[in-house]
Amino acid sequence: MTLTHPVAKPLRADAARNRARVLEAAEKVFADAGQEAQMEDVARRAGVGVGTLYRHFPTKQKLAEAVLERQIDALAAFIAAECATDPDPWAGLTRVFRRAAQDQAANRGQADALLSLADDLPDRCCHRVRLGPPTGAILARAQAQGLARPEVTEEDLHTLFCGLSAVTRTGGDWERYLEIVLTGVRV
Amino acid sequence: MTLTHPVAKPLRADAARNRARVLEAAEKVFADAGQEAQMEDVARRAGVGVGTLYRHFPTKQKLAEAVLERQIDALAAFIAAECATDPDPWAGLTRVFRRAAQDQAANRGQADALLSLADDLPDRCCHRVRLGPPTGAILARAQAQGLARPEVTEEDLHTLFCGLSAVTRTGGDWERYLEIVLTGVRV
DNA sequence: AAGCAACCGGAACACTACTTCCGCTTTGTC
DNA sequence: GACAAAGCGGAAGTAGTGTTCCGGTTGCTT
After folding, report:
1. Is the pLDDT reported for residue B71 higher than 90?
2. Cβ neighbours of residue A54 under 8 Å, at least 6 residues apart?
3. Contacts of residue A172 in chain B, CB cutoff 8 Å?
4. B58 touches strand D (CB under 7 A)
5. Please, which residues have CB within 8 angstroms of residue B110's CB and are 6 or more apart in sequence?
6. Does the model's pTM come out above 0.85?
């Protein structure tokens, strides 16, 4: 499902091509520069003019959201495919954290998104909204098996994700961070 | 070569008064807005013109550093007076974290400083440089008494402080964060 | 009290980055 | 192949904010 609405809007061939180029370029530029990415850089990298950017994405914020949404989609898919069904829920939970850390370390934009107040992000690219429930479900299974401390909540995990973003953003050692934090969650 | 040499430079009475006002105003404005604080806001709050700001602090960055330095000084003094000498090193360490969290929650500027790369901050207002050693010493005592996991390092604690800044900045529940993280450090 | 130097206020400046606008080009259709 | 509509490029417009400049003022010294 690529479109959010059933309203068919046939895009001209060159327009569709440019839209894809812009998204791809934006992904790279936001990965490097986070929210400080510049529209002109995105345009140059995509090989289009800034006008074309604005035809497809009315504002920088919307472009950032589109990029973020793709990455959240990928992460959600990874969780569903590789973590949620793991017979060892603790291993699954660990894998979620490690993947999130790797993503953030490679994508400053993703770390920045977790550091800004989530209120100004729509649900479809909100880390907490999209990833909280599946991650919480894994946590619940771990708790049911006595592998995780029972008083830890889904909300707590989100807090730990936020902390993680600060570590990756400052170039800290996120492996050590995860080790300590997961020790604090484990029984 | 330090400019803070014993070279006495007697400041005119009004200049000294204004300098103090600027610092006080800046502390409040940076506490509210962090690095996004605006020089004009500081000037207005201090009841002076922007020109006066720039006579005392040649750049916004320098002003932010001066504010930060005072807060780091206060935190260092607190650690030395109330935590370093605690017979129970674990209680001391906990108090350091709690105080840091409270400071950050009340001072967005302090949280922002921990989220930016520390490289561009001079030593005298660098969290890691100023607070790492005394905090590390408390950790070492806790480890010697078998209260903290032996493989945790001073560096790790700094990483956890960085994570803490993300939690306070996003309005997360830092009490829960500390509880989980400190559980991960404790034996 | 007078003179001078330091200091002050805030308008003007400079710079950066997002967004708009419009003449030209490409695409799809009859 | 020609026409209309959709799309394109990038220069120009705009806005926000850090910094400078200078005529006027205040404090210190003689």
Report:
1. yes
2. none
3. 158-159, 162
4. yes
5. B68, B71, B103, B104, B165
6. yes
Record the tokens describing residue A13, joined without a space: 């061939």
CB contact under 8 A, A158 and B181: no
Say how many CA atoms lie within 13 Å of B99 toward its Cβ.
Answer: 20
Residue B1: pLDDT over 50: no
Q: What is the pLDDT of residues A45-62, one digit of tens each?
A: 999 999 999 999 999 999
C-alpha triplet B41, A64, B35: angle, nearest 5° = 20
Retrieve residue B142's tokens: 């806790």
User: How large is the average pLDDT for residues B96-118?
Assistant: 94
Return the bridge partners of A148, or none: A186
How far lies A100's CA from each of A11, A103, A182, in Å? 34, 5, 14
Residues of B in contact with A182 (CB under 8 A): 184
pLDDT, one tens digit per residue, over A63-78 is 999 999 999 999 999 9
Identify the three-state secondary structure at position A67: helix
Contact present, A76 and A52 (Cβ < 8 Å) = no
3-state secondary structure labels for all residues of B114-170: HHCCHHHCCHHHCHHHHHHHHHHHHHHHHHHCCCECCCCCHHHHHHHHHHHHHHHHC
Q: What Cα–Cα distance (Å) separates residue A158 from each residue in A89, A92, B48, B132, B178?
A: 17, 16, 43, 27, 14
Do A169 and B115 count as a contact with CB atoms less than 8 A apart? yes
Q: Is the CB of A58 under 7 A from strand D?
A: no
- Higher-pLDDT residue of A187, B94: B94
